[in-house]
Amino acid sequence: MDNWNGIVSLLIACIELVLIINILVFAEKNKFNNISTLFLIILMIYQALEFIMCHLGYSTSFMAYLAFIDISFLPPLDLYLIYTYFNKKNDNLKYLFVIPFFFIIYYAFVLNKFEIASCAAFYAVYNYPLGTLFGAYYYLPIAASVFFLISYLRKGTAPKKILFAGLLLTGHIIMALPVLFAFLLASLRMPGMLNSVESIMCKFAFSYALCLAFFALNNKESVNE
Question: What pTM does this model have?
């Protein structure tokens, strides 16, 4: 196990905890800020789990399973927040939250196939079944969020929402960099990074956590305009 990975994960988890506390104390209580807080809590839990696995040495199949359960809710939660805030209510988006339960149930039956192959200084390498299917589920909603934010920036008229859209788009682009790099390497027949891209992405998602915290602390809307 790699001590540096655990230290970086713990540091990020602690900063995300501070962001969560600030939102709970200072931000207005509304639907969108609550979703932002939940997103940050999920990110924080993942970093805490990686600290436990990579620094404390509890790298069991069950711990890896818990980490994947945790992050499997991030893509639909992100898309739901962005679409409902910048556009309108759409109850159909709620069905996206059904998909993680498929993976949760299936992975529970193949728990022994989950493992942490290694912990590097900045990421953990996982081995798990249905990697391609999980990846498609994980990255498509994030890509949809990016395209939606770009579309809103082109057509939006509310200045504050345009500012928020630009901020969240920046966070998404930074968060997506390791994914794009991993697929570039895979296209060059160097697929090794694909097994660690979720872990690396969650580290890069710290930038998105900062963007979300800024959004929540400055968002005063209780309903869509």
Answer: 0.91
